[in-house]
Structure formats: C-alpha cells, structure tokens
Amino acid sequence: MRKKIVAGNWKMNKSWPEALELAQALAAHKDSFPSHVSVLIAPPALYLSGLKEALPSSIALSAQNCSQHDSGAYTGEISASMLATIGVTHCIIGHSERRQYYGETNEIVREKIDACLRHGITPIFCCGESLSERKFNKHFITVSNQLQQALFHLSAEQLPQVVIAYEPVWAIGTGVTATNEQAEEMHAFIRDFVAENYVDTVANSISILYGGSVNAANAAELFACPNVDGGLVGGASLKAADFTTIIQAAQ
Question: Distance between CA atoms of 53 and 34, rounded to whole angstroms?
Fold first, then answer.
C-alpha cells in the first residue's frame, strides 16, 4: 500500500526562534494528525540538528538539498552521510529552484539521488514542467525525460525507496494551482510511465506527491485524486494551523 505523505518545505525562511516556535506548534497538534500519514518538515539545514531535539518522533526531518559527493573539498556543501548522522530521514532533490537558480541538471540530480540511497536517506525527487512547456503541450515529454534521466537507472528494488513529487514550475509560489484534473492526469501519467519501464507492482508502491501552491483550502480536493498520495507544501507549511489542516486532509 502506498504511503500518504505530507512534507513541508520551509525553503529559506524563519529565524531560529521562529523555526523553534513553529516546530513546537506543530508538535502540539501531533495527536490530530491521521495515523496513516507520514509528516515531514524540511527546515533550513542550519536548524536540522536543533529541531531534531524539539520534534516528536511522529514528525520526521527532511533536508532541502544535499551534495552528490560523500566528502571532500566542497566548501559550503553538506553530504547525505552527514545528514544521516543527525537523524535526517529524507532529502528534497531536484527542486525547480535548484534547477533554475543553481544550474542543477538531471545528471546532477541523478548523482544526488544515488548519494541519498547510499546512506539510507529517502530522496524526494521533484519533477515538473515550465509554463511554456505546458502551453506547447510538452509537459509529458519534459516529465518523462526527467524521470528517465534521473531515476530510471535504479533497480526495481531501489525505485520504491524514492518519493516522487510532481511540481509544475508555473504553480510554485505563484498562488496558481493545477486543477484537480491536471494534477491527476500527470500523476497517473507518471505512475503509468513507471509501470511501463518497470512493473505494475513497483509503480503502485511509489508515493507521488503534488506540489505547487497547496494550501488549506485546496488540499482536500487535490489529495482526493486517486493517484495523488499527499503533498510537498511550500508557503502554507510556514503556518502551523494551515499545515495541520493540510495534513488532516490527507485521508
């Protein structure tokens, strides 16, 4: 059975006192979270170790990024092996902001996924198309290329260890959300594409999350789509009440 997952990507937000306050507010709501939903937060890397001590075990920690290298002269980088030693269980890989602002290619994303798996960290692999690709009907080609080049080197045993997050670039941080039909169509395409390249049992075991202006008002409808297994939430994860409502919507 596929896992229901709701992950909050805090991006580069919150001072340390604010981050601690938000984590404590989420912890206070933990008893209201559905027991079958895995809840993750991805704070700035600086706060991961401190928040590990402040959070209950029912709220897992994700990094927002990691290096493709395990160690070495890579100033400013953090490796998957380092993250694993402080109890981080997940890592967002290939977010469109990393691709756009830092030039991450599918090859780099592929190497980062491999680094995570080497150290027992679950990669949350992000894929999605730009507005122009959507307008010119290239969205399926874009996403299939991202999957083939970054994920499909993995074995049938490895692939289910990855979480896929479909994030249409045109909906990230814009307030514009894909319609339920658009989200379901792409999620079903991704699952079918995995099945074509592996087998149905692999495709049906992978959690596929939707990301792109998920909020407390639209989460329930999005999560009700048959192939949407939860969300990778941006701005709405920065408010404890809104994020709690989104988690509760993942029934």
Answer: 23
How many structural domains comprise the chain? 1
Active site residue 167: yes
**Has residue 173 got a pLDDT over 90?**
no
Is 69 annotated as catalytic?
Answer: no
Q: What are the C-alpha distances in Å from 93 to residues 147, 149, 169, 177?
A: 13, 14, 15, 21
Q: Read off the pLDDT band of 175 (50, 70, 90).
A: confident
Domain containing 13: what range? 4-248
Taking the C-alpha atoms of residue 133 and residue 218, their distance in angstroms, rounded to an integer, is: 24
Which is catalytic among the residues 97, 133, 167, 184?
167
Which CATH number characterizes residue 238's domain?
Answer: 3.20.20.70
| Contact status, residue 149 vs residue 110, Cβ threshold 8 Å | yes
Considering the candidates 95, 133, 184, 187, report the single residue annotated as catalytic.
95
Distance in angstroms (rounded) separating the CA atoms of residues 230 and 223: 6
